[in-house]
């Protein structure tokens, strides 16, 4: 009996972790404002209680970011300003949420910005 309960608890934990890993950050892309070559991003907060931060990903090709998954730029709030980007390029941005268990959500919808 105890073995069956442990198995059920393990299965339930696995399902909860998998659900966190695949849940979207927001239903929409972050918004972006370009000022002096910097891109200021803002996004909706994730309503789950155990969210403790966000990661910002960006790159010059859609869904191909400079940061490997799990290593996006960390933000504890719902905004971040990306600086140091080369001009005359299109950049793509997406955000994920992280939780207190160390799990990361799926990517938000993507947004792109053309830098002059």
Give the helices and strands, then pairings:
Elements: H1 2-22, E1 31-35, E2 38-42, E3 51-59, E4 73-75, E5 79-82, E6 90-99, E7 111-114
Mean pLDDT: 81
Task: Indicate the radius of gyration in whole angstroms.
Answer: 17 Å
Task: Please name the fourth-level CATH homologous superfamily.
Answer: Immunoglobulins
Shape: globular
CATH architecture descriptor name: Sandwich
**CATH fold-level name:** Immunoglobulin-like
Major beta sheet summary: 4 strands, antiparallel
Class by SSE composition: alpha+beta
Q: DSSP strand (E) fraction? A: 25-35%
CATH class: Mainly Beta
Low-confidence stretches: 1-22
**Helix content range:** 10-25%
* Widest sheet, order of strands: 4-3-6-7
Number of helices: 1
The figure for the number of domains is: 1
DSSP strand tally: 7
Q: Termini distance?
A: 66 Å
Q: Helix and strand succession?
A: HEEEEEEE
